[in-house]
Amino acid sequence: MELNGREYHCPVELVIELISGKWKLLILRELMSGTKRFSQLQRAIPGITQKMLTKQLRELERAGLVNRKVYPEVPPRVEYSLTELGRSLEEIFTAMHRWGERYVKELGSTL
User: Distance between CA atoms of 84 and 90, rounded to whole angstroms?
Assistant: First the structure.
């Protein structure tokens, strides 16, 4: 399958590319609970720099997973939320959460 001039061998490869990286999953997880401002996201994700958060949000926005809304106020207010497509990742996150719990329960003491 092809998207934006890139060939993918299967849909899973595409999904992994869209949400991979150290920060994207954490950003998406935070937005699952609702709309957030930039500073709220930065506080909720320890260790992420302003530059990296901006970069990752832009990539998620370009991918159609995150919506950015700018309010014409002083100082400017910007809010981020999941698009309908982004929200559809919730069942994947739930499955990953359950799998992670199971992994720790079954193998956690042997690691």
Answer: 10
Residue 7: predicted pLDDT:
81
Of 97, 105, 104, 100, residue with least CA distance to 32: 97
Q: At what angle do helices 24-32 and 50-62 cross, to 10 degrees?
A: 70
CA atoms of 49 and 57, how far apart (whole Å) = 12
Q: Which residues contact 110 (CB under 8 A, 6 or more apart)?
A: none
Q: How far apart are CA 41 and CA 35, in angstroms?
A: 10
Q: What is the pTM of this model?
A: 0.86
pLDDT tens per residue across span 76-107 = 899 999 999 999 999 999 999 999 999 999 88
State the average pLDDT for the chain. Answer: 92
State the architecture of 22-110 in CATH terms. Orthogonal Bundle (1.10)
Outline where DSSP puts E strands in the chain.
2-3, 6-7, 36-37, 66-71, 77-82
